[in-house]
């Protein structure tokens, strides 16, 4: 492990306790998914958060660091940068079906956060003289996969990338001496914890009426997709991963640990009543059943 990574090992990536966001900390034991209204409230509050990226310190990276991270960060920056038109369209169709109109707003907030990730990384790259690209081959494959799919597959593919991002940005943070990039990674990591929860809860809702045998098959496919993606990213981004103190074994075990947490959240059987309480019809009007709970 390099000295920088060793120094970082004790650093935690927990959200900032001084923020009122503390009350929004996701827990794997939530009794039911958050309502879309609650997610919108969270995203709005998160947006107001002061990001405190130390740009004034300037950005300098040495030759070794540049070699290890430049092509890798370029690929992730391109991946973060999306208009999300197809996702918005599919989420709007779903929202109409279940009467959960705030879901589209929540999706727009999510896309906005991804674009902020792309902007921050882009600003760092310009300062560090790392050329930006519009897209990359892996990004094209991921986008095509999503465009061919309905909402469930689209969210499943996205959350796969987001779970891996939780490991990747940890490695990238520990791979760099640049204070601005370290701060950007920490903010992304904090955001992604909530993104994963948001997407997994929706998967649980979308899969709520699936019988156990079909659910087992679904989780099998999800696991296979994750396995392939974790392997691909771990190999393709090996220089960044290694510089950040992630041997392939560590990458693999941290990745699967994150996956298992996400899998529990996306399992509809974790939420009592979800399978029979998807939406309700009132006076001919379909209304979303996840009304806010009493505080
Ligand atoms: Fe992101
Ligand atoms: Fe994300």
Notable characteristics:
295 residues, 65% helix, binds fe (ii) ion, globular, disordered C terminus, mainly alpha, Ferritin, two-stranded antiparallel sheet
Short description, anyone?
The protein is mainly alpha-helical. It is built from eleven helices and two strands; from the N terminus they run H-H-H-H-H-H-H-H-H-H-H-E-E. A two-stranded antiparallel ribbon has the order 1-2.
Compile the SSE list and pairings.
Elements: H1 3-8, H2 36-47, H3 63-80, H4 85-98, H5 102-127, H6 137-148, H7 151-175, H8 179-206, H9 212-236, H10 238-243, H11 248-266, E1 279-282, E2 285-288
Antiparallel strand pairs: 1-2
Helix pairs in contact: 2-5, 3-5, 4-5, 5-8, 6-7, 7-8, 7-9, 7-11, 8-11, 9-11
One fe (ii) ion is lined by residues 114, 162, 192, 195.
Report the total helices: 11
Low-confidence stretches are: 5-22, 279-287, 289-295
Shape: globular
Instruction: State the CATH superfamily name.
Output: Ferritin, core subunit, four-helix bundle
CATH class: Mainly Alpha
Largest sheet: 2 strands, antiparallel
As a percent range, the share of helical residues equals: 55-70%
N-to-C CA distance:
46 Å
């Amino acid at each position: 492990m390099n000295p920088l990574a060793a120094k970082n090992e004790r650093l935690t990536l927990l959200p900032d306790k001084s923020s009122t966001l503390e009350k929004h900390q996701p827990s794997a034991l939530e009794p039911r998914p958050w309502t879309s209204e609650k997610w919108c409230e969270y995203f709005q509050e998160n947006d107001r958060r002061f990001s405190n990226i130390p740009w004034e310190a300037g950005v300098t990276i040495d030759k070794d660091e540049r070699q290890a991270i430049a092509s890798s960060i370029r690929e992730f920056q391109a991946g973060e940068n999306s208009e999300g038109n197809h996702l918005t369209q599919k989420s709007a169709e779903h929202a109409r079906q279940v009467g959960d109109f705030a879901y589209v707003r929540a999706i727009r907030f999510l896309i906005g956060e991804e674009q902020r990730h792309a902007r921050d990384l882009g600003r760092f790259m310009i300062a560090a003289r790392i050329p930006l690209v519009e897209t990359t081959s892996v990004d094209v494959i991921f986008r095509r996969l999503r465009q061919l799919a309905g909402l469930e597959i689209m969210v499943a593919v996205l959350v796969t990338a987001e779970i891996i991002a939780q490991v990747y940005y940890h490695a990238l943070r520990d791979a760099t001496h640049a204070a601005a990039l370290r701060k950007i990674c920490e903010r992304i990591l904090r955001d992604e914890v909530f993104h994963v929860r948001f997407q997994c809860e929706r998967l649980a809702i979308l899969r709520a009426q699936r019988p156990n045998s079909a659910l087992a098959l679904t989780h099998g496919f999800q696991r296979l997709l994750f396995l392939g993606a974790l392997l691909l990213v771990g190999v393709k981004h090996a220089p960044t991963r290694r510089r950040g103190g992630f041997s392939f074994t560590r990458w693999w075990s941290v990745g699967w640990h994150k996956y298992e947490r996400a899998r529990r959240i996306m399992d509809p059987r974790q939420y009592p009543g979800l399978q029979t309480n998807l939406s309700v019809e009132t006076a001919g009007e379909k209304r979303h059943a996840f009304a806010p709970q009493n505080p």
